[in-house]
Amino acid sequence: MKKLRSVLIVLALAVVLAVAAVLAYVLPRHAVVNINGHEVKRVDRDGHVVDGRNPVTGVTRDVFFLYASDPVKKEIHVYRNEDTGFGFPWYFKFDSAEVQGRAQLIEADNTVQGVRPYALVTYYGWRIPMFSLFPNAVDVRTWDRPETPFPVFNTVFLSLLVLLIVVVWWRIRRWRKGRAPA
Q1: Three-class secondary structure of residue 141 per DSSP
Q2: Helices and strands per DSSP (H, E), number in the chain
Q3: Between 49 and 140, the higher pLDDT residue
Q4: Sign of dihedral through CA atoms 27, 131, 97, 116?
């Protein structure tokens, strides 16, 4: 019985870690950056850039990239800007060209006025250089201050998720107590 309980605890921890990893990947985040450049690259089905070392072998697509820097820490950020369509995660993003256009306007304001305007990039995903993974920019807009906004959606979503888990746990516990012999 003790061994079964420890196995169940390990499985529950594995499920919690897996759910936490998925949520950390798909929940939107914000970054206040300066837009420094943009580019369009042709990639194959696996997401690898098509070039002389990787010739075209089948279906390809264009992927927009945004190059940005953190105005305070001076760190470099690279975002891909690609439609999600109806695929997971369900952002239903079909406007990557418009997002790229807004980013180019923000960058052009920098070159014309000589002032580096802030841009708020809403994105999901991780940057993993070893696998050439870039976070996907969902939205780009001008921003008037270097502070990142409070993540209201994430806070409400995670609060509701915790509340749901507590209610389910409480119901299961009540059900098990009702079934226990007196």
Answers
A1: strand
A2: 3, 5
A3: 140
A4: positive
Token pair in block for residue 173: 């516990």
The two structure tokens encoding residue 87: 């695929």
Burial class (CB in 10 A: 0-12, 13-18, 19+), 80: buried
Pick the residue with more confidence: 45 or 97? Answer: 97
Name residues whose C-beta falls within 8 Å of residue 49's C-beta, 6 or more positions apart in sequence.
41, 42, 43
CA distance 11 to 121: 36
Contacts (Cβ under 8 Å, ≥6 apart) of 64: 38, 39, 40, 80, 81, 82, 96, 97, 99, 100
Phi, psi of 43 (to 5 degrees): -125, 155
CA-angle at 43, arms to 41 and 47, nearest 5°:
125
